[in-house]
Fold this sequence. Notes:
The complex is a heterodimer of chains A (123) and B (452). By secondary structure, chain A is α/β, with parallel strands linked by helices.
Amino acid sequence: MQLQKIEAFALFLSIIGILILYYWPVQSQYAQTTVAQIKIAQEEKWVNFSGKVEKITARDEGNSLSVCDSFARCVSVYAADGTAGSWVAEDPLYAKGDVRVLGEVGIVSGNRFVRAHKIDIGG
Amino acid sequence: MQISVFILVLFLLLGIFAGILPGLHPNSIGAVLAGWLGGEEWLPVGLLIILGAYSALAFLPSIFLGVPEGQTQIALLPGQRMLMEGRGVEAAGVVAFSAIVASLLSALSIPFILPFIPVAFEFVHPFIGYILIFASVMLLLNEGREKNKTNENAQLPEKEKKYCAEEGDWAAFGALAEKGGQMPEKSRKDKDILGEKEKFLLHFKLIKISKALIVFLLAGALGLVVLNMPLKDPLFALFVGFFTMPALMLAKGGQKLPEQQKGGKIGKNCFAYIILGILFGALADLVPGISTPAQIAVFSSVFLRMDDAKNFLAHIASIEASHNVFALASGASVGIARVGMVAIANELSPITNSNLPPLVGAFLFAIGIGAFLLIVFAKRMDLLVRKIDFSFLMKLIAIYLALMIFFNDGMPGLFVLATASMIGYLPRVWGVGRTNVMGSLIIPSIGHAFGF
Lengths: 123, 452
């Protein structure tokens, strides 16, 4: 096979690749959820929800944030040190702001909380 | 959610730079991006785009500059051989073709192999240590066989042949046989002497194997130390030392590359090696310990005839491409991915059957572009490399590589580079295969398999 044919073959493969990429949209593992839904969610479910930070409690290796929706329903979010965006809890400018949380549902003593993977400002 | 064209192009450029710039490893880029953009849904797709472009283009420095890059370290041996024969562009074509075919066939085979991966994992796992030991023994025994084959084809100067035949100096004959000597005709007729010849050939074969074993063990000892050091990119320092620095030490001043042929045809023979490469690539994802295509290529060279550099290169390129595709399948099936970038993508968002297609699509897209650019760049690299003094270029590259290693890993990195360079020098002066330095990965893998 000549080099020109290989070049054409390479471009053909890239077209196939891009068609597959755009035909199957990227499905996030983080399900769009509300605070209310988290209250009944299964353990280890990956969730994506927004809310307002109402309270921050310092823990040994991170912070716990109480994130509430507009109906004052709240869920506890644990942001370990080093979690992307966890600095939000340390910064007074953002500490009481709206956030979007990506994380995993955990259960301790029957209470559900979210172990944060990432916290975005805004929400 | 679909990835935007802007982000797609951005990641593609990152993959291209990672491929053509030695020392810029995609795993390092992936780790930085994961910390920075970890929550973005499209990041795993972006990482696969980087990996795809890198997989094809990493062969460019291997072939044209003799710089081992990423997991394709072993490719520089046949690649450099073809370059020295004026077939550098053809070598790039072979790699591009093999990577395309292997990626496509591997991707198509995913639905069929997915159910069998967990079974194969369970089956292979208890035997991995023994498989590695057997393959290592075969690799070393092959050393004697290969050299003997070379001896049969080589010619000795007439004066030396005459000396051996007339003087009966068997030590000299042995030394000459090692260099590629033929038994003098006069001596062949003598049965007793023929027995002596066999003894000497055996003697020198054993010496070869012993030398290869020393290189294998020294490299293995270094590998054990280096892989337990807290280095960012230990394999880079290790393989630059094994392959590139010894080449520099032995480079002669004023050396220029031969004129490179403009094109070249990829023969049908390559196809068998590509198919075998796909099978071996799948094996690389199944077997813990054999995690790099270079290791698999070295082992398969024991069982396959790799006399033709083109076939060897096709084999390595297809192992590299299929290894990456099957790592995605392995991630989706058993949650274990043995390719760094795929493992990072898997951590960001677990690979499942539902998000496997866009990840494979991203990889195919990028490796297609990478293969295309490999040929385009190879045609221009040829002009660039031929115009300048190759040994001068090698020195510049060596300084650049040392700086990159220092930048990545500081003084410990340079220590690894210096030690690996000394070990890498041995195969060249002893005339044994450079592939024996793969002991640096194989011996730690054997230790790992037996729980050390």
